[in-house]
UniProtKB/TrEMBL annotation:
SUPFAM superfamilies for this protein: Acyl-CoA N-acyltransferases (Nat)
Key words of the record: Acyltransferase, Transferase
Coiled coil: none
Cited CDD domains: NAT_SF (cd04301)
Domain N-acetyltransferase span(s) in chain numbering: 2-149
Protein name, UniProt field: GNAT family N-acetyltransferase
Domain of life: Bacteria
Organism: Microbacterium helvum
Source taxonomy: Bacteria, Bacillati, Actinomycetota, Actinomycetes, Micrococcales
InterPro entries: Acyl_CoA_acyltransferase, Diverse_Substrate_AcTransf, GNAT_dom
Length: 149
């Protein structure tokens, strides 16, 4: 059975492996300094990014999720944005992704957020099969302007 919990300092190596798998899936390369920055932000209670890990019965990390909240113009309370979700391919289809989404939704509910939302690529059929079961496809199309670093 998969359980979820907040990331702990001892999770760094397991998180790093899953994080790198996530970046590889999205064909993205980030410098090691960004990994360090992201990890430190996830553990800093003063920083508004949060993280959780899913662990199997043997205590091995099999998935990660990161989220943040932000003010909204359509609600008094902040919205919760689920930014990153990754499940080890070896355990996909076993409820880990659903458990991580539920973890974020529970956290958001406890913190007064009226909704959790996220983005995914259109061709991410495996993930979208789950998302269609646990959330509503809003039909919005995502655009962005890259401004360089």
């Amino acid at each position: 059975m998969t359980t979820t919990r907040a990331l702990l300092p001892d999770d760094r190596d397991a998180w790093q492996t899953l994080w790198r798998g996530y970046l590889e899936f999205y064909e993205t390369e980030l410098p090691a300094a960004q990994d360090d920055l992201t990890w430190n932000r996830l553990l800093d209670p003063q920083f508004p990014i949060h993280g959780a890990v899913a662990v199997d019965d043997d205590g091995h990390a099999v998935g990660i999720v990161h989220w943040l909240t932000h003010a909204a113009t359509w609600a008094a309370e902040p919205y919760c944005y689920l930014e990153d979700l990754f499940v080890d391919p070896a355990v996909r289809g076993g409820g880990t992704g659903r458990a991580l989404i539920a973890h974020v939704a529970g956290w958001a509910r406890e913190h007064g957020s009226p909704k959790v939302y996220w983005l995914t690529q259109q061709h991410n059929a495996t993930a979208r099969t789950l998302y269609d079961k646990v959330a509503t496809d809003t039909g919005y199309v995502h655009y962005q302007i890259g401004l360089g670093a």
